[in-house]
Amino acid sequence: MITFIRTHPARIYAVAVAALALVAHYVPELPSALVLGLVAAVLGTGEAVQRAENAKTAGTTAAGEGEHQDQADGGTLA
Q: Which tens digits make up the pLDDT trace of 12-61?
């Protein structure tokens, strides 16, 4: 389960935000302070998800640069 969470944080975040929006829409008697607190938490979580995705992208890009350098030097990919 933890592997799935680490692999797909943006997808999990999107589902959670969509569910929160639906609850806020269909349960109008929720206190606005609660909704605003959840919105603040969601924004903070979004920042963490973005950093995790950026780290994955940077790792993939760094791994791919070595392969591109080999091609530029006339080498082949193994």
A: 999 999 998 999 899 999 998 998 899 899 988 888 889 988 988 888 88
Cα separation, 62 vs 53, whole angstroms? 14
DSSP string for 17-46: HHHHHHHHHH-TTS-HHHHHHHHHHHHHHH
pTM (2 d.p.)? 0.64
- Cα–Cα distance, 43 to 48 (Å, whole number): 9
In degrees, rounded to 5, the angle at the alpha carbon of residue 51 between the alpha carbons of residues 48 and 53 is 110
The pLDDT, as a whole number, for residue 22 is 93
4 Cβ partners below 8 Å, 6+ apart? none
Please report the sign of the dihedral spanned by the C-alpha atoms of residue 48, residue 53, residue 56, residue 59.
negative
